[in-house]
Amino acid sequence: MQRFAYTTDCIRANPRSVLRMSVFRKEVTFGTITKRCAGLPEFAEAMGFADMYELAEHPGVAFYRSRFERKACYYARIDGVKYIWCAQEQDADDAVPTGR
To answer: What order of strands is seen across the sheet that includes strand 71-78?
Structure first.
């Protein structure tokens, strides 16, 4: 399964890229975000939440998947600010074997 690494937020990112990402989004569950996005517990603590479950239950939080700057991404919208995790390039060691 491909992992996604925290990349940026909508304040520091290119506004056009954020707009495109927001237009073509699909809502996802908290379970999907926890499986796909690396460092979510540390992110939640840095945002001032006791843990990632408190983050998930916050009324101003929603989770989405989309594309950001031509990469697959997931993002969390927390009180209007979008925090973005992008797909990482696979290393040769992580590549799926072709069977040859």
So the answer is: 4-9, 81-87, 71-78, 61-68, 26-27
Helix or strand holding residue 13 (H, E): none
- Return the DSSP state at 51: S
**In a domain? residue 39:** yes
In a domain, 13, yes or no: yes
Taking only the tens place, the pLDDT of each residue in 42-78 is 999 999 999 999 999 999 999 999 999 999 999 999 9
Count of domains in the chain?
A: 1
Whether 96 is covered by a domain: the verdict is no
The domain in which residue 32 lies consists of: 4-89
Overall pTM surpassing 0.90 (yes/no): no
Instruction: State pLDDT tens for residues 1-31.
Output: 789 999 999 999 999 999 999 999 999 999 9
